Amino acid sequence: MANMIIVGAQWGDEGKGKVVDIYTEFVQNVVRFQGGNNAGHTLVVGDEKTVLHLIPSGILHQGKRCIIGNGVVLDPKVFLEEIDKLKKRGYLQDDQQLMVDGAVNIIMPYHKKIDIAREVKSGAKKIGTTGRGIGPTYEDKVGRRGIRFADLLKPETFRRKLKEILPEKNFFLENYLGEEPLSEEAIAEEYLGYAERLRVYLGRASTTLDQAIKNGESILFEGAQGSLLDIDHGTYPYVTSSSTIAAGACTGTGLGPKVIDEIIGISKAYVTRVGEGPFPTELNDEMGKTLRAAGNEFGATTGRPRRTGWLDIVALRDAVRTNGLTGIALTKMDVLSELDTIKVCTAYRHGEQIIEEFPQDLDVLSACTPIYEEIPGWQSDISGLKHYADLPKQVRDYVAKIESWTDCPVVLLSVGPRRDQTLQRSNPFTKKS
């Protein structure tokens, strides 16, 4: 038995869905612990592509229990649409395979409207949110004004809370954001219409997972976004509104840290980010366009083109420390296959100072320029290789340098989007090399 957390080690979009899908074979439970439908995990099984926004990536495996933990915020309409799409394709035939913690906070129409209107009002100072209402929902959760999943299933409770909350939201929408107010009755009719379909999924993550551990079962904790978008440890305020680092797996499910055995951070062989905020290695040139095209770097949730740049070791070391990573899964190695040389940022220059630790001060980070080391490319197709030893020496040298710079082993390499385009150097569940 082993319990593993999987987190993004960059600004998100690192390929967590594929890695979760691969490791799901070795566990009985997959639990999502934070975020909402602002995240999109893309999985390719055979030639079939699946994009999941809320439901854990383990749902593509039969007989695995998938849990949405209390740290998640949930849009019931999006959730039910995702369920319907999966059922039409033959997945999730047993509703008992999926559970939602009763403490999950619900994304309401006013959250989405406020999210979008704030961005418009902010103009050039916008954060770059997805407009899905994630941030405003977390605000209400922390402000103790949230409506929970369990509340939605009790009509009287839901109506009472909505009646208490909506006047404040409408005042803010009308008088500050210049938007039309929302109808209490229309919201109640829509959301209570979802309730009966949702009731079958109600459960409690903490007690269910605790019992699973006592039964000798393993758990995979699935994070969304990336470490550099963490509300405390990311590039604040250009972050998401939840704890994306490994510690969030405990608060987002109700389990203590002593149950965690492995923490794997997913990193691309280069870097991308969406939205606003500093990005020291960003490439605003033809090379940036080349990486975007070769890596198909467009958001799984929004379709937005991602900003691209060279691998940033300073930021990756930060992720190793804040998450306590026991291993790195390196994805999209194949995207670099056509390049003559590859650059890696090993430190920053800030004025006359050389910086090797990721700055917490955003003004300092924004003023940093990367110091690069150039590495020879391999200029060969590696997408069909099945064993690490078969990779070109330049690839293996690149991996060795990353391990040396981060003091963390690379346990898995992805050389293409499909399940079978994965090279495992060591498997934390089997301990085989």
Description:
Keywords: Cytoplasm, GTP-binding, Ligase, Magnesium, Metal-binding, Nucleotide-binding, Purine biosynthesis. Homodimer. Its cofactor is Mg(2+). Plays an important role in the de novo pathway of purine nucleotide biosynthesis. Catalyzes the first committed step in the biosynthesis of AMP from IMP. Pathway: Purine metabolism; AMP biosynthesis via de novo pathway; AMP from IMP: step 1/2. The strands form 5 sheets. The chain has a 10-stranded mixed beta sheet, sandwiched between helices. The protein is an alpha/beta fold and 433 residues long. The protein has 13 helices and 20 strands. The chain starts with a strand and ends in a 9-residue tail after the last strand. It has 2 domains: 3-93 and 204-424, Adenylosuccinate Synthetase, Chain A, domain 3; 105-200, Adenylosuccinate Synthetase, subunit A, domain 2, CATH 1.10.300. Helix 3 crosses helix 4 and helix 3 (109-122) runs parallel beside helix 6. Helix content is 32%, strand content 20%. The mean pLDDT is 93.
